[in-house]
Specification:
By secondary structure, the protein is mainly alpha-helical. It has seven helices and no strands. The N and C termini lie far apart (43 Å).
């Protein structure tokens, strides 16, 4: 791979990310024009963020995702989608955690399989109930902000910064 190939790939990724941000902004504008569709658009935006983060979590480790995706997604999530930064951070970590347990890469599954000295199929089958718990938690945090903000509100007099 030459230097030109790398910069071309970087431009393609940057344009993909910018088109996603543009779509989120257009949906924000359409939400202001047609407020009766607000609930549907908000759900669609949330699910879009989850799909992006779960997809990244399935192929990358958590630390690089946080370092790369946070500066891009946090301003969009807070300014245009009305999420609190704490709520977004918890959603991001939950998405990445679910992604680390999910094939095709599933780094945590390989480690668990090696440590337990069990075949991958048995480890995956044993983790299925935990997927359900993690997804329910992710949905609760996503659609009910008080779940993720109750502790900061009670112990730190935190005032949510919802858009």
């Amino acid at each position: 791979m030459t230097e030109n190939d790398f910069s071309g790939a970087s431009c393609n990724r940057a344009s993909d990310i910018s088109s996603i941000v543009a779509r989120m902004l257009r949906s924000r504008i359409s939400r202001e024009i047609a407020p009766e569709t607000y609930g549907f658009l908000d759900t669609k935006e949330q699910l879009g963020r989850h799909v992006i983060l779960l997809g990244l979590g399935m192929i990358m480790d958590m630390a690089p995702i946080i370092l790369i995706a946070t500066p891009i997604l946090l301003p969009v999530a807070t300014q245009y989608c009305g999420l609190d930064p704490i709520q977004f951070g918890i959603m991001m970590v939950l998405n990445c955690g679910i992604g680390l347990l999910t094939p095709p890469v599933g780094a945590v599954l390989f480690i668990g399989s090696a440590v337990a000295k069990r075949p991958m199929e048995k480890v995956v089958k044993a983790t299925l109930p935990f997927y359900l718990c993690m997804i329910i938690t992710l949905l609760l945090v996503s659609f009910w902000p008080d779940v993720s903000l109750i502790i900061p509100k009670l112990f730190a007099d935190y005032v949510p910064q919802l858009g």
